[in-house]
Amino acid sequence: MEHANQVERGRFVAPHAQPLNSHRSKLPNVFYLLSFAPPCPSLFRHPQAFFAHPYVLYAIGTFAALGAGVSLPAFDIVFGYWTNGINSDDPAVIRARGNETGWIMTIVAFATCLFFAVFSICFVTAGVKLSNALREQYLSAVLVQDQAFFDRVGPGEIVTRSSKDIDSIRTGLGERLGYLIWSFSTIVTAFVSAFVHAPRLAGVLFVLIPFTMIVFTGLGYWSDNVAQAGDQIDGKAATMIEQILSSVRIVQSFDLGPRLLSKLQYDMLRPLQKLARRKTAVKGLELGTAFGAGFLVYSMCFWYGGIEVTKGRSVGDVMTTFYNYVNLFFAFAGVVPHLVATTTAIHVIGNLRTQIERKPPIDVRDETGIRLNQESTSWKPSFQLDGVTFAYPSRPTNKALDNVSVDIPAGEFTAFVGPSGSGKSTLASLLLRLYDPESATKVTDQDRAILKQANVEDTGIDSEEDVVTGSGIVRFAGHDVRDLNVTSLRQQIAVVQQNPQLVSGTVFDNVAIGLTGTDLEYRPDLDNSDTSPESKARLETINQRVEDALRKAQAWDFVTQLPDGIRTVVSGGRTGVLSGGQVQRVAIARALVRQPRCLLLDEATSAVSADTEMQIQESLLAEQRERGMTLIVIAHRLSTIVSADRIVVMASGRVVQIGTYDELLDPSCPDQTFRSLALPHQDVDNKSGSPPSSSSTSVFDSSLPESPTQITSKEAVEEYKPLPPAIRSTRQAFSHVRLLFTIGVIFGLVGGATFVIVAWLQGRAIVALSIPDFSEMRSVVNRWALWFLITALGALVVIAVHGFSLEYGGEKLVCELRLESVRALVRQEIAFFEQKDSGSGTLTAAASQNPGNVGNFFGLILAQIISSTTNFAATLIMSFILNWRLAVMVLPALAATTSLGYANFKCQEIFEHGLTKTIDSQSDFVAEAANSVLLLSALSREAETVRQFNVRFASRPIQYNWLSWSAITMGGTQAMIEFFAALIFWWGAKQVATGTVARADLFSVLEAVVIAIYTSAKIWTYTGDFTRMRNSLKTIESWITREPQIRSFKGEKSLEYASDKASQGIEFKNVELRYPSRPQILSLASVSMRMEPGKSYAFCGTSGAGKSSILAVLQRFYDITAGQILLDGRDIRQMDLSELRSQMGYVSQEPILYDMTVRWNLISGAQMPEKVTDAELENACRQACILDFIRSLPQGFETELGLKGGQLSGGQRQRLCIARALIRNPRILLLDEATSALDGKSEAVVQEALDNASKGRMTITIAHRLSTVRKADVIHVMEHGTIVESGSHDELIALEGRYFELVRTQL
Q1: CATH number, domain at 1077?
Q2: Burial class of 1094 by CB neighbour count within 10 A (0 to 12, 13 to 18, 19+)
Q3: Residue 1276 bridge partners (DSSP)
Q4: What is the pLDDT of residues 219-241, one digit of tens each?
Q5: S-S: 256 plus which of 251, 442, 1008, 1102, CB 3.0-4.6 Å?
């Protein structure tokens, strides 16, 4: 017990996460990745760590790559030496030269294998390590950004940056950088060798280099501009995909998939395709120019080489220089994909750098500022707002708060009430210093760069006269919050926000994280592994704190009934285990566990049943009185704030009233705002017998005047463009680019055959250089030079078309597979999205990255493979045609190259598979963090989240065994050209010496085979890309071909049913439900009931009783495990899903809107959006009490809502969702806590509207506010998944059972 007391007093303090530091570097973008490496350890003290450090890996890898790059120029030099010997007339000299050069090339081959293996391992390892460090730093930088950043940059973009972009950096500045250095080593070495052996010839050929560089520079500049525009649209598409996948229930309920996917296709993916046409044209020209220039070397070399021979230069020196330049240009052509990957990585890291080095105006990393000791009594947790004017960054021209001045005394219960959108939650954000009034609407140059990258329009920012100038001071404990340390401030305030979120982990973990920043901060990996007595005592104290908090939040009872009790695992951001009310109670426990001095509740009990809410309120008031806690409550349900010491009433961003409940309710009060909010509740609560009669004018009254300003739907609504039919497999996607791929393959075959033609020409040209008569020699050589020139021009055109066709086909394939991936995902059942690896963040990243991997391969990489394979096959054919004795020597080299390449592919596949799984897990972690940034900020868990990321992923070892074997086999394939040269030098010399092989044939075969092996060896450098493509294609195929577990019956539409049996309504027969994510729990148990058309039904009960499950099974989000649900006498499992859901209008607990206009969001609910008239649109908005607000917006119905409707308050979003459901004119209206986010006045008006809307249709309501359900024809009270009471309000009141208890708690 003494230990426990010591722990409570903080004597045993757990080590906290290291403070986060801003990342700054003076390195240019090309070296910026190196800034993420840790300090280099000592060679002598830690030799293993020294050699594993990225700096050392890059240094060793660079040295090895340079060494490997020398191998081809070495071959050129030895070839020239060998050629001089072969041209001798003495057989003994020929044999001796063959033996000598054979041994030299064998040594070069082993050195090449070693160097290549070393640099492959080094660059891949360094790339993986630094990309992981970059991802961690990016997460760290994103988490510390102020809320203004997230108002502009969506979680979809953050996930894409952390997965797709950083993965491109891993490959581009890892393995591809190694290949790039290797290729440039070949280029430089060949260049030097050429000038050493034949300087005049080298000088003549040199003119090709500046010409080629000028062409490539111009094309590169054009390509960069196109790529930048593409990046912007790509980021916007990623955010759209994230919005779709994170709201799949609404997408399926309203059948929004086609419309959302149409926006994705025609507004984002189609423009990407248009940009791709220009970008791929550049890449095709680059590839064609590189190869054309390479073949032009042949023409110029033999033309001027003949002149050099006449001046006494040996044929060997001419051929050495010739091969040097050939290798130089073909190395340059082969380097194009690697160069593109590396430059793309540098471009991407520049975009990331802008976000990483952004310094937020409110920086939690700043260690300065006044720190408040939580245990100190020298300060009191009070707030004062003095003249605060504030506008959100996403709507800088609209005042959210207008000159607000208010005091929140320490130790008292202060409540804030007011209509939806009055500024209550905005005030809460300022108390937590999520925004600063003065800096919120200011946009720096760095922010503009980020907005440009994200393709976010900076609307209104440049018009300074329209922008609200923020001002005022927020004080806490007498200090300006700007003078306080941000982390210290937030650690004094425990907060439960609207729509609280949980993190992935156990229920215990979710409550215990509330201890962040205290001496009892809980870290599962450390606290559960430490077995010392002090640690055990500390953990025991944490356990007791968590249990006490859960009891105070009225959550202990339901938590203990979960499958694994308090250790039950829940998934952050996904439903399936806990109901909305249960989530809220866990969040309240999380706030209470730290025993805060200030507690801020923002609609914290909106989804909790009335009796439970009353118990929570009593517990909180007792806590407040006992500890003198400052309690701040933002509420719409005014019964929760009756006991408040002071109530602040807000309207239109201003404080209009302050007083106690009784004072504000006094009819003599000058301002009647509070009274208008409270009276609807008081009227209902005071009459438990019969519903009140409404004296207000019905919002459906046709006599109401129309809006004076009509909006023409035909002009304002963009025409819906239907999507192309869905594909059934990835093969169909390939068939859509068949023409482009066919053209690419045909031209690739011609381009590949060009190498063999050139080899045949070269053999004859080399022999011609040895003609004794210089005049005849010049004539013959010039003729061959002309043929080389013709071949070069043809190759330029053929290979440019070849490259463009495949690259453009690949880009089109990316766009189609991206669309089809999302289309396939949104049709999956809800349970699919609740699986461990199917979070919206993971799927968003995968839906971008997997199509990208496929398109990346079916572009320039496939172009290289086709031309190389054609060259490979044609070489064999030509070798056997010319001389079978030479051909048999070709077979071992080609067979060995193929075998080693296949072995390399398998090793690479296993290595990449393990790496991909890790990256997917990291993406899911980042996605959850990005979507939970408000929670992490409020809990000051930024540093701990980064530490958890590091602990979870930094310790995962790289699979060095498979990487090593992959590198060794790759080295073998690259060394095969030298091994073959050793063999052919020896064997060819022997055959020439005996007269069985002509020199021309030997030179032709040697040239053809060397190029074939060289290009085929190059192919295996793309095994990583092939592996990624193959794995990605498998994933996409699995999505497209996966049949949803909730299958749609494909029989005939029930038109006859609708006419003959529409009066039968809905019937539940012994319905049972077990959620796939928790099959051991019976969520619905033997539910039987009948619901008749035209009547209203309501379900009430405690959180987790099964109310929302009723709506879930009605819409077939889940299939029941037993029993039947009949609609008009027909089992809903025998109905087409779209037919079933089209009869329902659904309003969910959490309002879901999309980053489009108000109009688009509303009409998307209609079954035929394009036929919605202005009158219907305005009528639905009038019913939902949102029309006046929409008219007040600058662009009215054409106003953009921002990410997930972020520009609106919770109540405004909820009313728009109600309007969306009403415009559907559904036969069955499903309301799941539809008015929970509304103030009392709006709720009363909307409820009246819903009551009128219910006439003639069946309405099924889920609610905790009994004022919402009392008018229902039948009320079902649920407990533990079953119906315990049923009847009208009067009947249930007379019964004095469970419903009576619930009503009494709200009186």
Answers
A1: 3.40.50.300
A2: middle
A3: 1099, 1286
A4: 777 776 677 777 778 878 888 88
A5: 251
